[in-house]
Amino acid sequence: MNMMMKSLILAAVLAFTGINPAQAGYDKPYIGETKIYKAKYEDTFVHLARDNNLGYVEIRAANPDADPWIPGEGRELILPLRHILPDAKREGVVINLPEMRLYAFINGDAAPETFPLGVGREGLETPTGSTKVVRKTADPIWRPTKRMREEDPELPAVVEAGPENPLGSHALYLGWPQYAIHGTNKPFGIGRRVSSGCIRMYPEGIAKFYELIPVGTKVTVVDQPIKLAWIDDELYLEAHPDMAQAIQMEETGQVTRQKLTDADMKQIIKAAGEYKDRLHWAAIRTAIRDRRGFPVKIARRPAAISDMPAIVEEELQEESAKDVDWEEEDNKAREALEEIYDEKSAEKEASYEDPGKKRMLNP
């Protein structure tokens, strides 16, 4: 059968099923691969982040024990380049605020384009919901709002295009008044909560994004600190600092412990489905506690146990042969998870705050 005939048959099948070939999208639940990088003497986290299309908090969370300014020559660092896709319709632009990352589903069957972001700081949060790109501008002019000028009376009424313009080289304005996706003249703020609600990108990122995205593109903003996906026969969990924890992670490389919410619990159990008896609760506790921002395995389907040691495989097969009381299993899981988030234990831990450090929003 020649290629033309195959194409005609595929088109007919898609038409019969109601699928538009142009909408047949990327079918994997993740993109990229986590990498190990051996640091050089001159490396810093802000430069490594930019060189690898990462944000600052992303690389800080993945390497909490390393000094972000002097990681040390020869030190192995994790570059968290595998990303589970957000739980949202794969069309247009999807932004997940906790991971401070954008996904552009514009490549048909190919993987989405992805970019790290700077998002709204405390009290000036980036909104969630759906909107669209209503216009685009190269060399935008910045007009500070009344609130901005009241906070900083020295701000001019208008800032023309150029190196002093905080909108950078390009801006895509959204249907939400006063919100845009734009560049920046302070690239070290990408991957941090630094803006007045707008969405910032690296200069090289916004230049590429501007060319890719037409006016009218749908933009969906979600708040999903925990993402889950089955990759082959293994269930992965990717936990990011939530919006309240992002600054803690930025400053200290760790977050204060918190109880797993009922919503989190339901999300994990739902993702595991019929294999929830195979959830590895110790791995879940660690991932939720540490919020390191890259996917970790938390369960395997029976088909995947063949690569385990024989004794572990036997134990799993014995467990799967038993009748499972799902309510009892859920209760056990909850008890196991809440043990590590016990309020009394949390009170005994030192606060993440370091009085000797000053918060740096715009380095």
Task: Summarize this structure briefly.
This protein has helices at residues 3-17, 45-51, 56-62, 146-151, 203-212, 246-252, 262-272, 281-290, 310-321, 326-340, 343-348, and strands at residues 30-31, 35-38, 76-79, 83-84, 92-96, 101-105, 113-116, 119-120, 129-138, 170-174, 180-182, 193-195, 199-200, 218-222, 226-231, 234-239, 296-300. With 363 residues, the chain is α+β, with helices and mostly antiparallel strands.
Describe how the helices and strands are arranged.
Layout: H1 3-17, E1 30-31, E2 35-38, H2 45-51, H3 56-62, E3 76-79, E4 83-84, E5 92-96, E6 101-105, E7 113-116, E8 119-120, E9 129-138, H4 146-151, E10 170-174, E11 180-182, E12 193-195, E13 199-200, H5 203-212, E14 218-222, E15 226-231, E16 234-239, H6 246-252, H7 262-272, H8 281-290, E17 296-300, H9 310-321, H10 326-340, H11 343-348
Parallel strand pairs: 5-14, 8-12, 11-13
Antiparallel strand pairs: 1-4, 2-3, 5-6, 6-7, 9-10, 9-14, 10-11, 15-16, 16-17
**Tertiary shape:** globular
Strand content: 15-25%
Largest sheet: 8 strands, mixed
Query: How would you write the strand order of the largest sheet?
Result: 7-6-5-14-9-10-11-13
Content-based structural category? alpha+beta
List keywords for this structure.
3-stranded antiparallel sheet, 8-stranded mixed sheet, 29% helix, alpha+beta, 2 domains, L,D-transpeptidase catalytic domain-like
